[in-house]
Sequence to fold (153 residues):
Amino acid sequence: MDSGIEVDFLMLADRAEVVNGKLYALGAAWDRIGVSDFAKPTPLSIAVGVLVPWTATNQPHVLTLSLRDADGQPVDFRIEANFVTGRPPFLNGEVQRVLLAIPVTSVVLPGPGNYVLAAAIDGAEMKVTRFGASAAQPAPPPPAPPAPPAPPP
Fold:
């Protein structure tokens, strides 16, 4: 049965949070990331907007986020979030946008390459975003301090 719910957007960010119904994101909408050590978790945030029609409110729903590599093989990463959107009387019949910002500190990317982050609602995949990961370039060394002035003759 089609509930009419849709994923409006799915975005990667350096940091994201939702406060008072607004999404705040820093370093958002990237599609490339430099990873300093593929053996360690890569911190990132996921921002999701879900459109919930009036007929799908007051019902439990499950958002599932999963990651796979460019060959479609799953990466060891999965998040499930349960949500229910209410029916405020002043929004009679309107679609509501549910905003979610999920900080992720546990994803270990297997190595350089391309990845697909997928968002599903109630088991139906609805949106994907693709990104590439490569080894981060080390920061250049700081410039040498200027030479002291020569003493007067």
Remarks:
- The beta strands are 6-19, 22-28, 32-35, 44-52, 60-69, 74-84, 96-104, 113-121, 124-135.
